[in-house]
Write the structure tokens for this entry.
Amino acid sequence: MCDVKIYSKLNDIIKTKNEYQIPALSKVREKECEKFKLIFNYCLNRLDYEYRHILVSSYFSDTYKFWWIDFYSKSSFYRKRIKAIASFVLLFEVVYENFNDFTANFSHVCF
């Protein structure tokens, strides 16, 4: 998958996440929101710690823009960020497409 498509898909996921932050949602949208949050958190927690740290620090928190300087060289950071995004997007798409099967298999587990 090329970098542009990966970034585009991640941006779509982030945009959806931000839309679901709106307090007044219809009942149908509430179900979609809960499904999305469940899948989002599940996928984020399934990533390696390093990938999760990169994604959370880069996109989902108000950290300093260049937080990664203390941890990585510029090329290493960009390379790892692309891998983190690709892993997250791929996992998110698989789980989202198979969500009904996924929840049926794990209905006895409390999320």
Remarks:
- The longest helix spans residues 74-97.
- The mean pLDDT is 78.
- The two ends are 31 Å apart (CA to CA).
- Residues 46-99 form one domain.
